[in-house]
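Reminder to self: tokens first, then the designed residues, so the page reads top to bottom the way the pipeline ran.
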């Protein structure tokens, strides 16, 4: 591990604490010496997680932060981010306090960031198919569906398990993110990935085992099934507009416009003639049918070409090195370009 920068700390860990008193002390005890600071964020926990941590550990690295009202796992993590950034941390790791995440894996999350190979590392419980069976079936199916939606909304087509909360981020990049606009609740991880893509951050998956014990999930599955797809759709539209029309114009922009134009024309032209034919009882001319068919097929081809372009545009270079070169000053989107 790299040493801490002058006037700051090296690796900081943020542990959101809400109803985790059964596991959190064991988790803290297993965090290795490579970590310089540990922030336990008591998210207005009714079980008094903050007091429990302060009474149960003498680790000088541990600092308890408290919320007056519950802000969700995202809000607790962002509070830890802000404090770690203020204290001069270099890398910030988010580790849940419920015992599902093995602290021994922490060096694997930090290593690609310290090596300048990535800006953000996240866990992937689907890497080893032999261990996926440890994940409850409902979570397995839900993660598979949400993973595809997250790929489209975040632009990171080469990662999986987007709701995985075991993460690490370079503090210099985290300081540039609009933390006040990132979702505070269970959409936090996916929304953070969306904002990372807007900054052209390089994201990598870290293989990890799926571990489930006696802990209780506070996520409302029914609400997530309704809320998450809508949020992903909104972020996908925002990302495409910003990356392909506001910040830049590329071949992908032309392909998308052609796809929308042809598909729209084919659907409207074909639909109107079908409706007119159904009302009049007169068969639609073959030429008219072919015009609509060719337009739709061509539109689908342009749409697939756009998706292919988007997949090839996944950020591959760590941008925190560009931040270091500019001394943290403001700079334009071209700095992030691969």
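Designed residues (338 positions):
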């Amino acid at each position: 591990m790299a040493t801490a920068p002058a006037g700051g700390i090296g690796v900081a860990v943020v542990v959101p604490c809400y109803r985790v008193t059964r596991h959190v002390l064991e988790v803290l005890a297993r965090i290795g010496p490579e970590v310089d600071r540990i922030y336990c964020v008591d998210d207005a926990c009714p079980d008094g997680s903050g007091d429990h941590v302060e009474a149960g550990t003498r680790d000088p690295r541990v600092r308890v932060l408290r919320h007056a009202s519950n802000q969700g796992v995202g809000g607790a993590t962002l509070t830890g981010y802000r404090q770690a950034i203020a204290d001069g941390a270099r890398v910030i790791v988010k580790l849940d306090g419920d015992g599902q995440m093995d602290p021994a894996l922490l060096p694997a999350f930090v290593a690609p960031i310290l090596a300048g190979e990535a800006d953000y590392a996240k866990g992937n419980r689907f890497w080893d198919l032999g261990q996926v069976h440890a994940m409850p079936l409902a979570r397995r199916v839900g993660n598979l569906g949400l993973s595809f939606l997250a790929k489209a909304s975040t632009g990171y087509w080469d990662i999986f398990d987007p709701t995985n909360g075991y993460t690490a981020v370079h503090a210099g990049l985290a300081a540039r993110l609009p933390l006040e606009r990132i979702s505070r609740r269970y959409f936090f991880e996916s929304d953070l990935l969306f904002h990372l893509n807007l900054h052209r951050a390089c994201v990598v998956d870290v293989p990890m085992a799926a571990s489930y014990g006696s802990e209780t999930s506070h996520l409302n599955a029914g609400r997530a099934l309704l809320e998450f797809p809508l949020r992903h759709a909104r972020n996908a539209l925002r990302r495409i507009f910003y990356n392909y029309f506001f910040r830049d114009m590329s071949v992908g922009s032309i392909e998308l416009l052609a796809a929308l134009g042809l598909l729209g024309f084919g659907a409207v032209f074909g639909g109107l003639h079908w409706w007119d034919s159904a009302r009049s009882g007169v068969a639609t001319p073959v030429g008219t049918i072919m015009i609509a068919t060719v337009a739709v097929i061509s539109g689908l081809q342009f749409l697939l070409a756009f998706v292919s372009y988007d997949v090839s545009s996944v950020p591959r270079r760590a941008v925190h090195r560009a931040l270091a070169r500019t001394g943290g000053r403001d700079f334009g989107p071209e700095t992030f370009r691969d």
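The chain is about 45% helix and 10% strand.
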